[in-house]
Amino acid sequence: KNIRDPTHNDILYGRGGGTNHHPGNKRYRKWVEDRKVEYVNSKRLDKPVVALDIVKKWRSQNPPGRFLKMDDKTGLWNDVGDKKAREKTSQALREKAPQIRRELEEAATVGAYPAGENGEQRTKKT
Predict the structure, then answer these.
(1) Could you tell me the pTM of the whole model?
(2) Tell me: the pLDDT tens digits for 13-45?
(3) Each residue of 60-79: pLDDT tens digit?
(4) Helix (H, G, I), strand (E, B), or coil: what is residue 31?
(5) First vs last Cα of the chain: how many Å apart?
(6) CB-CB contact of 121 with 115 (8 Å)
């Protein structure tokens, strides 16, 4: 509460360049990106588990990773808590999920059909 100086392990809520370029936000986006295929392939009830695992690992860093939102009145940062952190992480995992799902399905169909007479690879027509 009332954090004046966020660390490199903090994720800053907000829009625009200031938060996008913060080192914690950049690393967090990479962590999320690295788990998107796992998230897309998870059953509905397992999806929140993926998000919560990212939050737990983020918070276990040294110094601890926090999810911070600025208080407009004081200009200081406050941790939003685990529930909001998990919601933010779930939202980030869902970004581009339909596109990733499509790419995974397309990759799975390549090679699923026998080669043509000339040996060329046949792929499923969509």
Answers:
(1) 0.80
(2) 987 778 889 999 999 999 999 999 999 999 999
(3) 999 999 999 999 999 999 99
(4) helix
(5) 53
(6) yes
